[in-house]
Specification:
five-stranded antiparallel sheet; 17% strand
């Protein structure tokens, strides 16, 4: 009797739909795990060299980063294949400052084209990972790590002014030029495109953003 009541219960279709959704999610997760195992991304380090006489403004770099949004993947694509990210890096030691970009092998050409589009005179070429070139005793010396975070909510742009009056890299490169023989500096900025909907402020944050600053 109980089984018969269950079969004719109005909740049965709802339970069936929920079970179907769970099975689909489990199947998608299984497919993604198998796909990531078979297609484990090979990371490539690209050296970026721009001529000293480069006269490009910071707007060129801004446009390059905007174009890299083409790496965006939908939630379903991320669930099945993972996401695509790019890491721009600065490596400095005494009397040497170099720029790198770490990417997955399958997006190497795409990222290189975005760099060339804004910096046609640049030289972009594959190099060994500079981390692996260090001796063990060098990596075991004193290390200081820090994460750079923004002071405002994430929907605010990192750029807070319309134009640069001076080279924004000048202060950083000037400081890095003072490194000693036993000092190294690595800076990594990892970029991951996200859905633009996530950058919209909530009503509460909109109200906050209209409030005058006390600073």
């Amino acid at each position: 009797m109980y089984l018969e009541d269950l079969l004719y219960s109005p909740l049965l279709p709802i339970v069936g739909v929920l079970l179907a959704i769970v099975l689909v999610l489990v199947l998608l997760l299984f497919i993604r795990r198998q796909s990531l195992r078979r297609n484990r991304p090979d990371l490539i380090v690209l050296a970026i060299e721009v001529p000293k006489g480069n006269d490009k403004t910071p707007l060129a770099a801004e446009q390059m980063f905007n174009n890299l949004y083409g790496l965006f993947r939908t939630n379903l694509q991320q669930l099945l294949y993972g996401h695509k990210s790019v890491s721009f890096e600065i490596k400095a030691e005494r009397k040497s400052i170099r720029f790198f970009c770490t990417v997955e092998a399958d997006i190497r050409d795409y990222v290189a084209k975005q760099i060339y589009a804004q910096y046609p005179d640049a030289r972009v070429y594959e190099v060994p990972d500079y981390v692996n070139l260090y001796e063990v005793d060098v990596l075991e010396r004193e290390i200081a790590l820090a994460n750079i975070i923004t002071l405002k909510h994430s929907f605010y742009p990192i750029k807070t002014f319309s134009s640069f009056e001076v080279d924004p890299m000048a202060a950083l490169t000037s400081s890095l030029s003072e490194l000693e023989d036993n000092e190294d500096f690595w800076l990594q900025i990892a970029l991951l495109p996200i859905c633009l909907l996530y950058t919209s402020p909530s009503p509460r944050d909109r109200t906050r953003s209209r409030m005058p600053s006390s600073a």
